[in-house]
Write a structure and sequence with these properties.
This protein is of the alpha/beta class. It contains 18 helices and twelve strands.
């Protein structure tokens, strides 16, 4: 063979990668994959065999998906570019124009915005349940066109814990799935699929990753799609183009996740980078160690804060003063998580001074990091809500959200003490605690 030109050689003259038994997860950082034989391409596009394009599947991403499905007790997982992408794909797999979603009022504001600002434009309507612990409140919100119930396992900001078995029973009575955002608790503390939920979503950027470096999201399905509910979800039971088998025919109980993986996710294209998937996979390997430490730190910090006269309320499930404490004792045996809110008696100005004085707690929009973080919800994450709407979900002018990390707890408490002192926060009136608690019940 004659020697090829320089530019041709710089592109092609390199050894082909061979399979090796790497102990750590390899990073397949490639847009596409070559086919060994002509028929391999047809087999992939016809039967899904092998790999062709990372938007559809990638070995690094697949490995992390399998790990997450195993940890959540699900059948399959889909890793996506962000938690917002995971929620979007999960809901768009279930709901069509003219249909309806029932959601907890205590949800991430990005999810609320997705439903109100985007899905509503396409004829998908929603109702929000404020009294999330009352199954009858969920029941009353369901319509004939409702196709999903959506809630968080633990909410932001007032740390409300959903009674998943009770609400899943309501959903299943109507043949519709319960979708749970399990970001705050992670599968180490709570596995919603084992309690009756049907679909779990995560912002994998948070605890699953742990280090705050990358974005990612995940959907995990129970694999329990009931064919008897097929008339409610024709997208799962109808043949595809050119008469290809339906998701139900191809995947059985995995019809829901098969449709999300094969149709919705690749068509919208929120593909996660294999590099980000790798970092999330690395984070998952230490998930229990981090969350265990963070939960214990959070409990110690919450107990200390509850004793400080400048703090009007502490919304942490691990405290007996929290309205969901007993439910937490039932469902959160490994710990109560590390994200919770406090409300300072001095209001918004005290919150500002407290944040600006913090040194160990980092002021940023994030949570689940190994570092401790602090945020003022009323002026950031919940700023689009009216004051009355903020109060309804436990956000007041003096409320701060804490995400407790793995630092030495003595340093965290010392930093909080210094911040309270620097803020000049007055002692909380005795009646303030009663008022806050009344709004949370």
């Amino acid at each position: 063979m004659p020697q090829r030109g320089f530019t041709t050689r710089q592109v092609h003259d390199r050894g082909q990668a061979r399979a090796h038994s790497a102990r750590a997860l390899p990073i397949y950082l490639t847009a596409g994959f070559s086919f060994s034989e002509y028929d391999d391409a047809a087999a992939h596009f016809g039967e899904g065999i092998g790999y062709a394009y990372t938007r559809i599947a990638n070995p690094t991403i697949d490995a992390v998906e399998k790990a997450l499905a195993a940890l959540e007790g699900g059948s399959q997982a889909i890793l996506l570019a962000s938690g917002q992408a995971a929620t979007t794909v999960a809901l768009l797999s279930l709901v069509s124009a003219g249909q309806h979603i029932v959601l907890s009022d205590h949800i991430y504001e990005g999810t609320r915005g997705l439903v109100i600002d985007v899905l509503d434009r396409f004829g998908i309507t929603a109702d929000f349940v404020t009294d999330i612990h009352d199954p009858q409140a969920w029941e009353r919100a369901i319509r004939p066109e409702t196709r999903a119930l959506f809630a968080e396992s633990v909410s932001n900001a007032s740390n409300r814990l959903l009674d998943i078995p009770a609400i899943s029973e309501v959903a299943h009575t109507h043949g519709i799935p319960l979708v749970i955002d399990n970001t705050f608790t992670t599968p180490y503390l709570l596995r919603p699929l084992e309690l009756g939920a049907d679909v779990v979503v995560h912002s994998a950027s948070k605890f699953l990753s742990g280090q705050g470096h990358v974005l990612g999201g995940a959907i995990v399905d129970s694999g329990r799609f009931d064919p008897a509910t097929g008339s409610l979800f024709p997208q799962f039971t109808s043949p595809g183009r050119r008469g290809t088998p339906s998701a139900l025919d191809r995947a059985g109980g995995d019809a829901r996740v098969a449709y999300a993986r094969d149709v919705v996710a690749p068509r919208f294209g929120p593909t996660i980078s294999p590099l980000n998937a790798f970092f999330i996979g690395q984070g998952i390997e230490t998930l229990s160690l981090r969350v265990q430490r963070q939960s214990q730190n959070a409990l110690d910090v919450a107990r200390w804060l509850e004793e400080q006269p400048e703090v009007a309320s502490v919304d942490y499930i691990g405290l007996p003063s929290h309205p969901d404490y007993e439910l937490g004792r039932r469902d959160l045996s490994a710990g109560h998580g590390s994200v919770f809110s406090i409300t300072l008696a001095g209001g918004a100005e005290a919150a500002r001074r407290h944040i600006e004085a913090a040194e160990v707690f980092t002021h940023m929009t994030h949570l689940g990091d190994v570092r401790s973080l602090v945020l003022h919800p009323a002026s950031t994450s919940h700023v689009l809500l009216t004051p009355s709407e903020q109060e309804r979900v436990g956000v007041f002018p003096g409320t701060l959200r804490l995400s407790v990390g793995i630092e030495d707890v003595a340093d965290l408490i010392a930093d909080l003490r210094a911040s309270l002192d620097a803020a000049g926060v007055p002692a909380a009136p005795a009646t303030r605690q009663v008022e806050v608690d009344a709004l949370q019940v």
